[in-house]
């Protein structure tokens, strides 16, 4: 993890994972980059944030979705969209999540194949209830009710990089296909079905006590420039006042100098 010693904007970004700067995915999809979520560099105006998730052996990019206020602290909210688990169908730069020769294991947009990350198991990661996913597999499952509150979101205070709220939500699925001789697989009516197994939600929100300390620190930070301005104005006023008093004394003491000599005049020799 980068300490930010040479470039503070890289604070908290992962440099290596499992002693390597690459994962099993090819090209840029296999890069080790982004924050692990605990430490963020204060950077105002960034259009997106990158989170490295060891459970899927890859990183996730969350674009900015707008301002947010959590416990009285202003921040910026970042939320996933349909690019989160795309594999080249909508965003060509993500085609590296599939083999160069696209085959049946390269599913429509919205499902990330993590088989190589999960010891060869036919596992795919999506958003809960196939949120933001291509309808090809979602249309084969009854009972799905995707909602926007199921989205993966992260809110940050940009002056300090402090996480205000995190809602990490993902769904684990198994790809079940009909295989000759395996009657268990062949029970499903469709020969190619992405079956939801479970989805989880991990939510963290800043506490009221910690938020009170943060608000005080942010108010102190925003008030410091005004304090310096006030001290500068007071200093200038004192300087002008001192010069004014000195000039008045000089003007009122034309006959008697301000500094009188204490040395007596010596009589001239005869």
Report on this structure.
Helix content is 18%, strand content 25%. The protein has 270 residues and is α+β, with helices and mostly antiparallel strands. A hairpin with a 4-residue loop joins strand 6 (153-157) and strand 7. The N and C termini lie far apart (95 Å). The relative contact order is 0.11. The model has no long low-confidence stretch (mean pLDDT 82).
Q: How many beta-strand elements?
A: 8
Largest sheet report:
8 strands, antiparallel
| Helix count from the secondary structure assignment | 2
* Percent in strands: 15-25%
| Secondary-structure element series | EEEEEHEEEH
Q: How much helicity do the residues have?
A: 10-25%
Q: Kindly, what is the distance between the CA atoms of the first and last residues, rounded to a whole number of angstroms?
A: 95 Å
Uncertain runs: none
Radius of gyration, CA atoms, in whole angstroms: 33 Å
- Strand pairing plus helix content: what structural class? alpha+beta
Q: What's the shape?
A: elongated
The overall pLDDT average reads 82
Pfam families: CD36
Family: Belongs to the CD36 family.
Keywords: Cell membrane, Glycoprotein, Membrane, Transmembrane, Transmembrane helix
Protein name: Scavenger receptor class B member 1
């Amino acid at each position: 993890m980068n300490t930010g010693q040479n470039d503070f904007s890289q604070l908290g970004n992962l440099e290596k994972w499992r002693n390597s700067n690459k994962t099993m995915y090819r090209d840029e999809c296999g890069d080790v980059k982004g924050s692990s979520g605990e430490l963020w560099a204060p950077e105002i105006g960034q259009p997106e944030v990158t989170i490295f998730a060891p459970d899927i052996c890859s990183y996730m990019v969350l674009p900015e979705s707008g301002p947010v206020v959590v416990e009285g602290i202003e921040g910026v909210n970042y939320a996933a969209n349909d690019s989160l688990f795309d594999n080249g169908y909508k965003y060509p730069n993500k085609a590296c999540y599939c083999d160069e020769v696209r085959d049946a294991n390269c599913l429509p947009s919205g499902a990330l194949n993590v088989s190589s990350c999960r010891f060869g198991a036919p596992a795919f990661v999506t958003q809960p209830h196939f949120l933001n996913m291509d309808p090809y597999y979602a249309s084969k499952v009854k009972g799905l009710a995707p909602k926007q509150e199921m989205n993966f979101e992260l809110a940050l205070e940009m002056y300090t990089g402090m996480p205000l709220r995190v809602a990490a939500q993902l769904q684990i699925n198994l790809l079940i296909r009909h295989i000759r001789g395996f009657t268990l697989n062949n029970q499903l009516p469709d020969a190619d079905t992405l079956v939801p197994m479970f989805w989880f939600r991990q939510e963290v929100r800043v506490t009221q006590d910690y938020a009170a300390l943060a608000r005080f620190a942010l108010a102190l930070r925003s008030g410091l420039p005004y304090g310096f301005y006030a001290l500068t104005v007071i200093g200038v006023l004192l300087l002008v006042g001192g010069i004014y008093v000195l000039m008045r004394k000089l003007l009122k003491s034309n006959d008697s100098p301000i500094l009188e000599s204490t040395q007596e005049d010596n009589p001239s020799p005869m």
